[in-house]
Specification:
The complex is a heterotrimer. By secondary structure, chain A is an all-alpha fold. Helices cover 72% and strands 0% of the residues of chain A. Among the domains of chain B are: 220 residues, no CATH class; 73 residues. Chain B has 25 helices and two strands. The radius of gyration of chain B is 29 Å and the shape is globular. Chains in contact: A-B, A-C, B-C.
Chain lengths: 172, 628, 109
């Protein structure tokens, strides 16, 4: 069973790296979908079955379809990346790597206080989650619905066609 | 009646008029502006009459509140002082002021800055009242500066004209020189007497004053420097002729009748101090003599009607200064009063002429106006007769008194003044005849357009003419058997013994005056009125050239003071300003500029750059937290 | 099903932490080096998912459901964000005819 985790982890990292190194946007998106599936698998291993499902539905299903749709819509399937200079790229890579090292070294030695108190597989089921959600997090959930409403209005406004003022006839 | 109430009645109405006209003048109709502007001085005049009628006793000290305290020595009140001298001055200021306000409503009516003009006039009147009524030198100084400011504003009233602005600045700067002396005198007085109230200075002097005390002499000379500036004595008199740039009512009110006499008033007010310093009295008398003579000489050759009157004013102020200098303060105040009447009359008459000729000021282009402007001619004639000292007009009595009192003290002063008097007669008759008699020297068309002024201008002229005719009867000389009422009134404030001259001298003085006047009138009439071709001075000979150019005094000041100052200033601006200060300032300037150029690149607007810098900053923050 | 919780006992939490850190920084490096704004946006999604994974793992090890609820909220916010962000990208593409972020240099005063 232990190996399952490591295999999954390797695949996840490989897929994520492929997302950022593949030149073709469509390929990136497909690798990203793959990454999300792998993360869902991790959720199953962590007894978060409901979240695994939601992850597949929301991320792999809805969000990635949106991405795909935009790429198709803008006709971006050809590569537009052009290297201008190595300096910003290397600076980006170096700073990212440095930050990674710092976090890595910080987490490597971290210890969780209580290791024993695992909740069992029922914990991630929708029954349990729903109880917690509607008992403790009712208000944030309602706020979430307002957030969606705002996002929806915003998207509609952004996507609206600019109204062009009709040019007035100069000759009376 | 309560003195405080009367004081409030006199002092504040012009200020209220100023505030209303100054703040809302453009939004209220013109007739309302006129009424508000004239109501202020009229109320003050009423208050003055009430004060004259109902205030008993020699003086009323009214300290309103403590203004400020000089640490360790003097408490300075915002206080007022009504005594007989103040009442006389109040009559002059509010009486002549009211008439000139009424005149202005006609004269300035079509000017676009009408409400502003009336507001300034009201402010001037308020400052003048502050000056006259102040119970100490500091309040007096506040009024002194206030009238200076109004003078500046009104000389430069037509500020579109650059020359007028220059004249205003000249008057202001000349007065600053004098005011510096005045301020120094105030500090010295606080230092010496520990108080600034007139009454307290007087008391201290009575107890411990010493004749010829050098400190007192210094104070007196410093005060006199202030007087030189304000009352246009040599060497600070050159601003007054230039001040004629202002509208004519301003010249009449400020630069003839009231403000320029403030210096005379100051010395009369502080007479007890000057009595302790014969040296400074001599300085005043000599300065007055020179001023009277020089100004009268310059006036002989001027062609601008207002300039002639301006130099005449300077000359008459010189007379007053001589009278003060020989210790005959009441004569000086007497002449101040009559001079206010007839000089205001002359200026307003000149204004009427200028108005009728649509802005012409040059007497060489006038002539024969008698038939067109009967009223103006009549009042100008009265004014001229008054100023030259023809009996029984106002000027005769006051001038005669000054001459007699000066003669009783010093013959040479008398001689100079007599000469100046002859000159006065000459240039005044010349002005009168050249303007009103003979033939008109302008074009026919222009002559057709000449018109008499409106009633609002003529009526004040007539009132002033009446005063010029009968004002002298306030001080009849001993010889006529009448009473010198003014002396009796003022001696309660100014304790001064009456001078004595022999009857023979008085008779001969009168006789010579009358003979001289008749002969001068005849000569000038022949020269300027009868001959068809009137010759005006062009300055061919050396003497007339010098006189025509006002003794080159302006040029002298330019060389002596203005140019060196300008050179010093430009040297400082080049060496110090640009060389030192600017360089010092540019150091932080360049630092900030270069650093901002460097920092500007941070905000490149590029999204990728922002992302990178966000990442780098997170890295730094995390590093700081971990390896703290 | 009962065997799955056993996995938690066999794999230490640190490994999950390292995994999510790796994912996070892969996403971050992607954000920094890629020039296509859509790829950048996708990399941001990877970063969000890395955080989600971290939350779920800690929640599982502590036996508490709150972490998973948080993940739920993050997903909700991410969905809103993606919809708005993609709308913005479409608008910018309409105006600038590009998705290269090096050419998006209007973001200054």
């Amino acid at each position: 069973m232990q190996n399952l985790f490591y295999i999954l982890s390797g695949l996840t990292i490989f897929a994520a790296i492929m997302v950022i190194i593949s030149k073709h946007p469509i390929r990136s998106i497909l690798f990203l979908v793959f990454t999300f599936f792998l993360i869902s698998a991790h959720y199953v291993l962590l007894n978060a079955q409901f979240l695994a499902l939601v992850n597949v539905v929301v991320y792999a299903g809805a969000i990635m379809v949106l991405f795909l749709f935009v790429v198709m819509f803008l006709n971006l399937n050809q590569d537009i990346e052009r290297f201008k200079s190595w300096i910003p790229l290397s600076a980006a890579a170096i700073s990212g790597a440095c930050l990674f090292l710092v976090f890595f070294s910080a987490f490597r030695t971290s210890v969780l206080a209580s290791h024993e108190n695992t909740g069992g597989y029922q914990q991630g089921l929708v029954e349990n989650l729903g109880e917690v959600l509607y008992r403790d997090y009712l208000f944030p959930m309602e706020i979430c619905s307002i957030l969606f409403l705002v996002a929806m209005i915003g998207v509609v406004l952004l996507g609206r066609k600019e109204r062009v003022e009709p040019i007035k006839n100069l000759v009376p | 009646m309560d003195a405080t109430l009367i004081l409030h009645l006199i002092l504040w109405p012009p200020l209220i008029g100023f505030l209303i006209n100054g703040l809302f003048g453009n939004s209220i109709p013109k007739w309302a502006v006129s009424i508000i502007a004239c109501l202020g001085p009229l109320t003050s005049f009423t208050g003055t009459v009430l004060a004259y009628k109902f205030l008993s006793g020699p003086a009323h000290d009214i300290p309103l509140y403590t203004w400020f305290i000089v640490e360790g020595s003097a408490k300075i009140n915002f206080g007022f002082y009504i005594d007989h001298l103040a009442i006389i001055m109040l009559f002059v200021v509010t009486g002549v002021g009211s008439l000139i306000h009424a005149y202005s409503t006609g004269y300035m009516h079509d000017d676009k800055g009408y409400s502003r003009f009336m507001a300034y006039m009201n402010l001037f009147l308020f400052s003048m009242l502050l000056l006259v009524l102040g119970s100490n030198l500091v309040v007096l100084f506040a009024g002194w500066e206030g009238v200076g400011l109004c003078s500046f504003l009104l000389i430069g009233f037509w500020f579109e004209n650059k020359e007028y602005n220059k004249a205003a600045a000249k008057a202001f700067i000349m007065n600053r020189i004098g005011d510096l002396g005045f301020l120094v005198a105030i500090f010295l007085i606080i230092n010496k007497f520990g108080g600034i109230e007139f009454t307290s200075i007087h008391e201290t002097l009575m107890e411990e004053g010493q004749l010829n005390d050098p400190q007192i002499a210094l104070i007196c000379l410093m005060l006199f420097l202030g007087v030189c500036g304000k009352s246009a004595q040599i060497p600070l008199f050159t601003w007054l002729p230039d001040a004629m740039a202002g509208p004519t009512p301003v010249s009449a009110l400020i630069h003839a009748a009231t403000m320029v006499t403030a210096g005379i008033y100051l010395i009369a007010r502080m007479y007890f101090l000057f009595d302790y310093s014969p040296l400074s009295l001599n300085v005043i008398a000599i300065t007055g003599c020179i001023t009277a003579l020089i100004a009268a000489t310059i006036a002989l050759k001027q062609n601008d009607i207002k300039k002639i009157l301006a130099y005449s004013t300077v000359s008459q102020l010189g007379y007053m200064a001589v009278a003060l200098g020989v210790g005959s303060y009441i004569s000086a105040v007497f002449h101040l009063m009559t001079h206010a009447f007839f000089k205001a009359l002359l200026f307003l008459g000149a204004g009427s002429v200028i108005h009728g000729l649509h802005g012409e000021q040059d007497i060489s282009k006038m002539g024969g106006l008698k038939s067109k402007m009967k009223w103006t001619y009549a009042v100008m004639l009265i004014g001229t007769l008054a100023i030259v000292g023809c009996p029984p007009f106002a000027g005769f009595f006051s001038k005669d008194e000054i001459l007699a009192s000066v003669y009783s003290k010093n013959f040479w002063y008398f001689l100079v003044l007599a000469f100046a008097s002859v000159f006065t007669a000459w240039y005044m008759f010349r002005l009168l005849f050249a303007t009103f008699h003979g033939q008109f020297r302008g074009s026919e068309v222009k002559f057709e357009k000449v018109h008499e002024s409106s009633y609002s201008m003529v009526i004040p002229l007539i009132v002033l003419a009446l005063f010029s005719m009968f004002g002298g009867f306030a001080g009849l000389p001993e010889l006529t058997g009448g009473e010198h009422n003014l002396y009796k009134f003022l001696v309660q404030t100014i304790a001064q013994t009456r001078f004595k001259v022999s009857h023979l001298f008085e008779y001969s003085l009168w006789g010579i005056t009358i003979v001289a006047l008749i002969s001068i009138a005849y000569l000038t009439y022949r020269k300027y009125a009868t001959s068809s071709k009137v010759v005006f001075e062009s300055g061919n000979s050396l003497v007339s050239k010098i006189i025509l150019n006002k003794f080159y005094l302006d040029e002298l000041y330019l060389i002596l003071f203005v140019n060196p100052l300008k050179k010093t200033g430009s040297w400082i601006i080049n060496q110090f300003e640009y060389g030192v200060i600017d360089r010092l300032i540019r150091i932080p300037d360049t630092l900030i500029e270069s650093s901002s150029i460097a920092l500007k690149n941070l905000q490149s607007g590029k999204l990728s750059w922002y992302l990178l810098s966000t990442a780098v900053s997170i890295l730094l923050i995390v590093l700081v937290f971990i390896y703290r | 099903m009962n065997t799955i919780p056993e996995l938690i006992r066999t794999v230490p939490l640190q490994h999950y932490l390292v995994l999510s850190t790796c994912l996070f920084f892969i996403g971050m490096i992607g954000v920094l080096v890629r020039r296509n704004i859509i790829i950048v946006f996708m990399c941001i999604e990877i970063m969000l998912n890395a955080v989600n994974l971290l939350m779920v793992s800690v929640s599982a090890y502590r036996g508490e459901a709150s972490g998973q609820i948080m993940v739920l909220f993050i997903m909700a916010v991410a969905a809103a964000e993606v919809s708005v962000g993609l709308a913005i990208i479409v608008m910018m593409y309409k105006n600038l005819k590009t998705t290269n972020i090096d050419l998006f240099n209007q973001l200054k005063g």
